[in-house]
Amino acid sequence: MTRAPRWLLPLLALLPLAGQAQPVDVPYLTGRVVDNAEILKPDTRARVTTQLQEHERKTGNQVAVLTVPTLRGESVEEFAVRVFEQWKLGQKGKDNGVLVVVVPQDRRMRIEVGYGLEGTLPDAIAARIIRNVMTPRFKQGDYDGGTSQGVNAIIAHLEGRPSQAAADGPQQAQSSEFIKAANMKLHEKVLFGAFSFGIIGLFTFFGIVTPGLGWFLYFFLIPFWAMFPMAIFGSAITFYILIAYLVGFPVTKLLVSRSDFYRKAAEDLKKKGSATIGGFTLGGGGSSSSSSWSSGSSSGGGFSGGGGSSGGGGSSGSW
Question: pLDDT value at position 178?
Fold first, then answer.
């Protein structure tokens, strides 16, 4: 058997690599619209460029559009991140950039959102813009309409204007008027919810079962029920939670006040100046003008909450 020449061995070793697709190079940032796939008309590029320039002047946000013919097997998510990192869209420290990537031959697209704009343009909104605005037009071969209308919807949300085209229905279009929930992961919402609802829920319970002081806690807890749920559910749902508290507390307290233990606690406060409820001792002095909570040894503590962070949000789609 004839052996291959030694000088040929390195070339044979490189053969498996020759068939592997190389990542597409990140194009140079030559403008706010980089149409390397040549799918947009000149007037569309000019109109979108002017629109993005005006938006940046008003808000400081940097939005760019990039089209490339194909990614040669690379995912649009990975490519968008590489472009975003190299182009460095957005102001330093604010991360207020948005990148729209369209890959016609792969029939893929992505809206990549900088960390600083994730609260204004969350993944759900980006997905609706792709699904309801861009995809139907791209399916018809209307790249000019899909790109320009997609940019219109993005800018509308960044500037706080409702976009009917990017909503799934009238109710969702109106939801932009409310404060959205904090951008936290599921486990972070569970932890924050257990912490905050555990505290205000405990004080709400004692407010219901405690004579006298209970009504003070009722009014004291109103701002807490109006604010803490907002971080998890947003303002729309928090509004109904607050209404449920405002109505539910008095009704429940009225029902509890007819129970034997409630009457006994009220009687003990009058005769002994103190009453034990659920292992806690409520003490009152003199005319019951003041009261204090104790459970074994007194202890003090502060109240605090935390938030989460994430980067590189956005959404992808195909047609």
Answer: 54
Structure tokens at 54: 């005006």
pLDDT at site 276: 64
The CA-based dihedral angle spanning residues 151, 153, 158, 159, taken in that order and rounded to the nearest 10 degrees? 110
Burial of 28-58, coded b for 16+ CB within 10 Å and e otherwise, reads: eeeebbbbebebbeeebbebbeebbeebbee
In a 13 Å sphere around the CA of 228, the CA atoms on its Cβ side amount to 21
- Closest to 125 (Cα-Cα) out of 74, 161, 84, 77: 161
Nearest to 103, CA basis, from 28, 178, 179, 27: 27
The model's pTM is 0.50
Kindly give the interhelix angle for 235-256 and 213-220, rounded to the nearest 10 degrees: 170
CA proximity to 52, closest of 121, 100, 5, 110: 100
Is pLDDT of 269 > 50? yes
Contacts (Cβ under 8 Å, ≥6 apart) of 309: 115
The answer to whether residues 294 and 283 touch, using CB atoms and an 8 Å cutoff, is: yes
Please tell me whether residue 37 adopts helix, strand or coil conformation: coil
**pLDDT tens-digit readout, 63-88:** 999 999 998 888 888 888 888 888 88
Q: Residues 183-201, buried b or exposed e (16+ Cβ, 10 A)?
A: bbeeebbeebbeebbebbe
- By the 10 Å C-beta count (0-12 exposed, 13-18 middle, 19+ buried), 158 is classed as buried
